[in-house]
Amino acid sequence: xxxxxxxxxxxxxxxxxxxxxxxxxxxxxxxxxxxxxxxxxxxxxxxxxxxxxxxxxxxxxxxxxxxxxxxxxxxxxxxxxxxxxxxxxxxxxxxxxxxxxxxxxxxxxxxxxxxxxxxxxxxxxxxxxxxxxxxxxxxxxxxxxxxxxxxxxxxxxxxxxxxxxxxxxxxxxxxxxxxxxxxxxxxxxxxxxxxxxxxxxxxxxxxxxxxxxxxxxxxxxxxxxxxxxxxxxxxxxxxxxxxxxxxxxxxxxxxxxxxxxxxxxxxxxxxxxxxxxxxxxxxxxxxxxxxxxxxxxxxxxxxxxxxxxxxxxxxxxxxxxxxxxxxxxxxxxxxxxxxxxxxxxxxxxxxxxxxxxxxxxxxxxxxxxxxxxxxxxxxxxxxxxxxxxxxxxxxxxxxxxx
Length: 402
Description:
Blueprint (H helix, E strand, L loop, with lengths): L11 E7 L2 E7 L4 E4 L2 E4 L2 E2 L2 E6 L13 H13 L4 E4 L6 H10 L2 E5 L11 H18 L5 E8 L6 H17 L6 E5 L3 H4 L1 H12 L6 H17 L11 E4 L9 E5 L5 H10 L3 H11 L4 E4 L5 E5 L18 H15 L5 E4 L7 E2 L12 E2 L12 H18 L2
Helix pairs in contact: 1-2, 3-4, 6-7, 6-9, 8-9, 10-11
């Protein structure tokens, strides 16, 4: 057999006849496994150049509903020089995964176990297992699917939640004897994981000459309290670590992690410290390249989400929030950061295209859309699209030159 891979997506026509009925399909053959912090495809480390994708279309208003819509999205994925797509947050149409087989795109397949659900309810667990079973039963012969994801941003970190998701992981493993890795997109525990980050952010804020005197005095007092409780730890960038400790990491084979240092976290720290949000965003962008990720489980990591919102066509040289320039700047700093993280095997930024979201109500900017897309719902590419495409092109060239 010639093994399937993104560079050579070899498929074979197969058929099965039982009691006079014949089922035909086109399938590829390959292996997926993990070793240490690596994800292996056909025994070789997998280069993951990814993007997250909802089931959308740029061909006409509304949701994707045809193979042509999917092809339009996958053409954008190819233009990004990506080879990996996180299908968020639900199984996509069957023609999506079959087209990925044909095109040689790697897929993260996910079921809609999202955020806070009723972890103690047996009926909820039964429903979740039913959805997962349907997903695996339909798609386990798709070479493009290289991992099953059992949840996205699940919380709180209770024993009930861990038992629920462990049961889902066991179900997937029992249904799929090809040993596809199990993944989940975690959000972590900010109190435990961001303590070191908070110290560095505080130090960076105090370096800003334009910081107003009242804010400076307040931050100095906070810094004094932190230094006392932390035993006088310094602010060396070499010590800036984010270690994932979510016990779900024991259950999965691949630790996904959603993080928004240039977006939600800046707002959170601004409110916590009582400092101008613009100053915090500036400080956060400055320290982002020095952040290092790890997990206490010694498993491969994928940064399953990062990004920032931008209204297509909103430009400003000052790069204010919601501008294309600000989104591009977040991507630039994220890529500097993640490119220096050995434990991170790849990432799937959020998200390929702006999509409808009724809670996004900022008039003139969101207008009912989540604006973190690299492409507007009209198909217009934002500046960050080019930033990511250039980065992936350099990665691909470096890999081919090895």
